[in-house]
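TASK: fixed-backbone design
INPUT:
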């Protein structure tokens, strides 16, 4: 087997440095094996291939249990091959036996960021920074390389929204892959489109404020202002206005204010505002 910078033999002498300390910087996959073990010989080249493919996202450390019996005993190795994944200085997961490649990839996906993951994160960061052409180019490359990768879909919708292509984004969401139908990010995107459409139909925030000064019961102005506050990231003010619409004019827009509050909750996720305003919403409803 050709030498690889991502595969290393470890002994008791360097296990602490390579595996325990090293796993604080990146995951370390430890393959406990023995020369007499046929499944070990079957598994080892597959693990080495994946280590090279992941290009340093994890280190493959091989422990010959015949030569390193103390290490094998210390980590409770009773069956070969046993493969343990270390992160932060401790083993966090393991599998035993010569699993097929697909199952090993699934195992790694739970713990190791792949090159594809990093490029997807780069595209997301580019969208957030407003570098839309760079994001579009990277997403096009990723889609060409992996046409069935559903993780790209939400970013493609976000890119359309960032470009102001609301109709295109809405059309994309109408054809959401079935496996993403209940994904929280998809619910967030539906909410962003709904607020963008409502904001586009409303007067400017200043005009909405003026209308409300003249008539605090102007539900259309208050709802339009709330939509623009959501887009500006002023979620608390938006929720206050939506609750006011609910309290004063529950039937406005076929219960639009309550539906909008739920969409804001989807956008906020675990934000503490959600707990506070969910309680306020419950008091209004019940």
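OUTPUT:
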């Amino acid at each position: 087997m050709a030498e690889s910078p991502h595969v290393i033999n470890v002994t008791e002498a360097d296990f602490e440095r390579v595996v325990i300390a090293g796993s604080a910087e990146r995951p370390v996959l430890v393959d406990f094996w023995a020369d007499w073990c046929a499944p070990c010989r079957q598994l080892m080249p597959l693990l080495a291939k994946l280590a090279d493919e992941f290009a340093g996202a994890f280190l493959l450390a091989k422990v010959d249990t015949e030569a390193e019996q103390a290490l094998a005993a210390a980590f409770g190795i009773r069956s070969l091959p046993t493969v343990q994944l270390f992160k932060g200085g401790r083993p966090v997961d393991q599998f035993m036996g010569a699993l097929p490649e697909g199952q090993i990839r699934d195992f790694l996906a739970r713990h190791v960021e792949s090159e594809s993951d990093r490029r997807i994160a780069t595209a997301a960061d580019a969208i957030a920074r407003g570098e839309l052409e760079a994001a579009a180019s990277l997403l096009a490359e990723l889609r060409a390389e992996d046409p069935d990768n559903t993780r790209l879909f939400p970013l493609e919708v976000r890119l359309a929204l960032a470009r102001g292509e609301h109709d295109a984004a809405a059309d994309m969401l109408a054809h959401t892959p079935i496996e993403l139908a209940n994904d929280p990010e998809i619910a967030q995107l539906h909410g962003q489109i709904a607020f963008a459409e409502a904001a586009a139909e409303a007067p400017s925030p200043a005009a909405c404020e003026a209308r409300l000064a003249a008539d605090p019961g102007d539900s259309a102005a208050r709802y339009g202002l709330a939509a623009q506050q959501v887009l500006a990231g002023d979620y608390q003010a938006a929720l206050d206005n939506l609750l006011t619409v609910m309290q004063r004019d529950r039937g406005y827009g076929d219960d639009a204010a309550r539906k909008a509050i739920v969409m804001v909750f989807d956008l906020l996720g675990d934000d503490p505002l959600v707990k506070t305003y969910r309680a306020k919403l419950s008091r209004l409803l019940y």
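COMMENT: Residues 7-109 form a domain with the Glutaredoxin fold (CATH 3.40.30.10).
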